[in-house]
Amino acid sequence: MSGLLIERPLPHGGRLVERVVTDKKVARKMIQGCPTYEIKPTLHYETGVPVRNVYREIMSICYGFFSPVEGSMKQAEVERVLKERRLLNEWIFPYPLVFDISKDDLNKLGVTVGDRLCLTLKGKPFAILDIEEIYEIDPEELAYKTFGDPETNPEVVQQKFDKKHPGWVIYRSHQPYVLAGKYTIINEPKLKPPFDRFWFPPRKAREEFDKRGWRTVINHQTRNVPHVGHEFLMKCAAFTGDVEPCHGILVNAVIGVKRRGDYPDEAIVEGHEAVNKGGYIKPERHLVSIVLWDMRYGNPLESLLHGIIRQNMGCTHHMFGRDHAAVGEYYDKFATQILWTKGIPSFGFPAPPTEVPYGLKIRPQNMREFSYCPTCKEMAYSETCGHKREKLSGSFLRGMVAEGVQPPSIIMRPEVYKVVVKWWKKFGYPFCNEKYVINKEKELEVDLEDL
Amino acid sequence: MAYFMVVLLDDSRMAKLRGTGLEDNIKYMFGGELRLLEVEVSEELKDKILAEFETARVDSRGAITDVPVAFMRELFNQVVEKKSLGPEVVEGVLAKVDEIKEMAAKESEYLPPPDIETE
Ligand SMILES: [Zn+2]
């Protein structure tokens, strides 16, 4: 075999974390006599609107998306992550992940180190948390330190974080006590349609890649209904690879708390699926999947998490765009590119994450954008021809959709538009309105059976 | 023409436009895939729109954008009704300003979906 061939990387940390008990009898025994605690959504510290649900972190940890993280982090680990973006076992990781509760709840529970806590979700047993440490945090300090600031991280942070940043708000809204320890899911939640058919946890994703004969796979991160510009990014990014273009294109949609004006998650996943159902990319070459996570919008830090998730899923390559997972102008537009090409020393990366010890193996593919060139008469890469372009701006397209005007197929494929309208009819709105945002956090993406 | 508003045309709007005599004024983008009309807006009407709708703005080309969806729908209706692209179209829209504002207030929670087959 050619030495140039790229092999699928091992999971981050060397092995997949899998903490899911599927035998109900065993599970029932595990929670016998344990105190129980119903998981609550994290509410915005000022407005009371739900901004996060820790159940999504428990799912992503126990199914191995966040390998090698195994649970709610201890104090020393949170401190190390904030300082060097490394776990106590040395592997790189961008964000603190903790199980936070209020003082009242802690007192009511009366749990202590060594106790096992049974976490329920929608009233049903869901997971256990084996408590190894209990400590207090200052949510505001945690919020600032998680994202960095212009003094400490001058390479990429341009502006002090504040409550206009949804990720900062998530950490600022954490409760002040942390129960640290490993999570284990003891009652597997069932993903609700349409999410169930897009559920490919890392082990299943790797098995699916094997089945399809995909050695090389490039990931496309999304939280949007795809327009033709996205489609061309996927098509052309897939020409990267080794001696041949990437075998597979994995779309991995981040499913979690929504902001008003986003497209509904249902339309996002089915919209991407419509790209392959419509044949624009052959279904044999394209797979749509999801990960549960309340986006922190940490641009370079988020890109690091994305790299970890997709390496765990078995991808060899990852596309990163300008303003990757960004909101506002807190970070440099090219902060993600800077991280993956040079590193960001103040975040603990004197070199790119693929070139530091205990780093990543997934290969970044930094991409700009596609727009229509009326001279070349094609969708053209922004860095290729020098003609004046007709840009596919998201807001132009959203305006068109809101007006009920079907976008031409050179902008949005009719199959994708039909999906948008299908969910528009269901929710009475093409984008996430207040009702959708609130209902989603009430109903979540899963249902649980009795144990 | 100093100021204008863009009316996007899909197949269903094209059907309604037939016979208005405005077909010759259609402009094309995206290789002829996107059809649109430009409605003339006078200085005075532009000021009125900006005063009535706080989200409205004028872009670098002189196009007035970011008005409520209800405004844009009515704009098309008026084009068809008046069979024109002149200032009387926006005048016709502004004559219904109260109705539009009422609909715009509901727009953040409800928008009528287009009547197309989905599944
Ligand atoms: Zn060109």
TrEMBL record, chain A:
Catalytic activity: sulfate + ATP + H(+) = adenosine 5'-phosphosulfate + diphosphate
Keywords tagged on the record: ATP-binding, Nucleotide-binding, Nucleotidyltransferase, Transferase
Pathway: Sulfur metabolism; hydrogen sulfide biosynthesis; sulfite from sulfate: step 1/3
Record domain Sulphate adenylyltransferase catalytic: where: 197-422
Alphabetized Pfam families for the sequence: ATP-sulfurylase, PUA_2
Domain ATP-sulfurylase PUA-like: 11-187
GO molecular function, one term: sulfate adenylyltransferase (ATP) activity
Broad class of enzyme this protein falls into: transferase
Protein name: sulfate adenylyltransferase
TrEMBL record, chain B:
Pfam families, per database record: DUF6955 (PF22271)
Superkingdom assignment: Bacteria
Alphabetized InterPro entries for the sequence: DUF6955
Protein name: Uncharacterized protein
Taxonomy of the source species: Bacteria, Pseudomonadati, Thermodesulfobacteriota, Thermodesulfobacteria, Thermodesulfobacteriales
